[in-house]
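Standup notes
- DV: blocked on the single-chain target, sequence here:
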Amino acid sequence: MTEAENATTNGGVTTHRHGFLGERAELVSALLALTVYLTGLTLQLTGHGGPVPQALFIAAYAFGGFFTLREALLAVRGGRFQVDFLMLVAAAGAAAIGRWEEGAVLLVLFSLGHALEGYAMGRARRSIEALGALAPRTALVRRGTGAPVEVPVEELAVGDTVVVRPHTRVPADGFVAAGTGSVDQSPITGESVPADKVPVADRAAALADPGAAGPESRVYAGTVNGSGALDIAVTRLAGENTLARVVKLVQDAEERTSPTQRFTERFTKFFVPGVLVLVAVLLAAGALTGEPFADTFYRAMAVLVAASPCALAIATPAAVLSAVGRAARGGVLVKGGAPLEEFGRLRTIAFDKTGTLTEGRPRLTEIEPVHAAGREELLRTAVAAQRLSDHPLAQAVVRDGAGLVQAAAVSAAAVSEAAPSEARNLRALVGLGIVAELDGEDVHIGSLAYADTLAGPPVPARLRARTEELARTGRTTMLVRRGDRWLGTLGLMDAPRPEAAAAVAALRGLGVQRTVMLSGDDQRVADAVGRAVGMDEVRGGLLPEGKVAEVTRLRRTARTAMIGDGVNDAPAMAGATVGVAMGAAGSAVALETADIALMSDDLRRLPFITGLSRRASRIIRQNLWLSLGIVAVLVPATALGLGIGPAVLVHEGSTLVVVANALRLLRYAD
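- DV (later): unblocked, structure below
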């Protein structure tokens, strides 16, 4: 195995494959170095001189410098000069002037700090890898009429029926084919409340188009079934399920560097050669002043150690890795350090309306009869006629009718009396309304413009005024006439999500200064939703290119995120500083295209990732200033006489402080 195969670099942090000791190899080597160094130092201090202490110091060089030397060689071969290289030069210099104990303490502390740093970073990575362990390794499959058989999940095929027993994990993505119950989806979507699940109406249709299965039927690998047994029809293979995609994308996110990380990499690239030039200048200055070479050389080596930005190299990757892992556990997928940092600096957020701030489907919100006693007849007539239509507004009237009747103290049985066979001969008038026959009478349902074209009695003045008032508040209205009698009007609206207003208020509390809603709906409809959820600005009547133009306008004044729920918002999301997809758990396209993906449709995930991103940005800045501050203090201190040992101790201590600071993000409260 080549050295290139023995080490890989992620986000500026090098990790090794260490053979039979695994990740512990570097720590074991560092502890051996510490042991032999302390033994040699004890012998030297107790007067047991001679070759034994020096041999122990040389052994400390070997144990403490092995992994450092290997990493430095890999970097130099790749044309990079990193911190490890400076440490080796300083240790070699100390040995050259007979300061073996100084060089040994340098390598011992550096290797020990590097090993502990690797352990801490490993903890952050393990929190991500733990996601992959959520899915079961086997599944109970029912094939044919026999009893369920346990098979590895890799052998599952699309269309297989998996039996999920109570309180066990779901082994594959799919939909409920039989059984009802609740499923804890928090590992995937971050939802705090288990989601109720019901079977799909048509298994064959759902298998042909899995995306058509509603969220009340979809399940994901790695989620936890409740108390009811479920039969799940598999729709994705093990390597392609939502959990596998999330784990892969989170792991890939480690390699997407943030702006701060790119800065530190550029800084190190030029800083290390600059330090070597400074050392050469110090050596030359010592020679010109007549100072003993050993003293000059030692001071130059001490400056070399002091100028090594150990903590700087790890400051940003540690914070990014911890934040990305914490976000994934909370049901949010962040595609690396760049969107994480950018989102933490946002001041403006633009929202799509339909499906993002609203539920994405119209609801029957008002029933306004001409006479109070006619409420039952109005609803019965509308439901009977609209049963024959497949228009989304008609389906909303039929779907919500029973519930609204119950709220009005009218029996549900009264609604069901109008069976589908009682209404017939439906004629749809595109953009206007419908006409149907009910009990020998024509039933007209449509807009006010359509009502004004009908022969017979005009729309009563009070009914017209109420219909116009509903339209001004963003409702879609349907006037209902049966024969020559006006029965009333119905108001429908794509209602805001229950959590939308609270989420927007929480974002404002986190420092978002401007919220804008972008919608293709009529401006009046958009204004009504915008007022309900607390938007600062509302732009209605926008085509996709209009949304792109609005996002471009917003970006001229501030960093802007675009929150959407699907592919139709992709152009605007691509034009934003950060694009965020809602409800991405069921959409492979959204997972791949968004910078940040909220796995559920819950807008409360948005304040969570906003707060986490802001915390991560603060920690990155803290780490950056601490790292640079240590270098700024130590360089003049060593030039004035501070030794190598204290300089190394301060550097390695600051590195551990930086990593510990970053790991706090793993405990960020939801």
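- Follow-up: The longest strand covers residues 485-493.
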